[in-house]
Design brief:
The protein is of the alpha+beta class. It has 6 helices and 5 strands. It has helices at about 1-30, 35-45, 70-80, 105-120, 145-160, 195-205; strands spanning about 55-65, 85-90, 95-100, 125-135, 165. A 5-stranded mixed sheet has the order 2-3-1-4-5. Helix 1 (about 1-30) runs antiparallel to helix 2. The longest helix is centred in the N-terminal third of the chain and has 30 residues, at about 1-30.
Amino acid sequence: QKRIDIEQKYIDVVRQNTLMEKYKLFTDIVTTAVPVEDLLDRANAIEIDLSAVWYGLLLINIKDRHDKRAYASELDELDNMDGVIAFDLGLEGKAYIFKADTEEELNVLQSEFIDRIKLLFEDNDNVSYYGGVGNGVKRLSKMADIYEEAVRAYTRSYLSGRKQILGERTDVISEYACTDVLPDMGHCDVKSIDRDKMTEFLKIGEL
């Protein structure tokens, strides 16, 4: 029993270290603080293949009033979809980088992914989610640009207080209130914004 406990503790430590390395990797990807060659090497070291022609990004946070274990297996399936790399951002939720050979394939992959999230939670009143999508880019070095787009969309989704994923491409959006990602909220329907969410956002200054 003692040997089993030691082995389990080792597995847990390795898993935690991998999560931390992935978190750092994602941060460097979206801030372009590290050369692409270094990012690819670091990804390979933790068995992640970052090479692709087209890249997309989704930021999402899923909140459950009860037990997330009820749909843990479904989320694991999403995390392990072909062409998808999942990053755990802790309290900030999750980030998903999508990879494809063409822009069309990227859009199809993102649409399928978002549709599966919608189907998984649409009838569950105990679960809420909000997310933002960034436009596809052809170079990993451009991820910082679509990260900013995804953050703006993510923020608007949060403020709306609804189950939705916002972004610039309406063909990959789930239950959207605004159809484009803009630097400000001037073109967003203010009626779609939850006032309590707005107050909370203004108080804490972050999501």
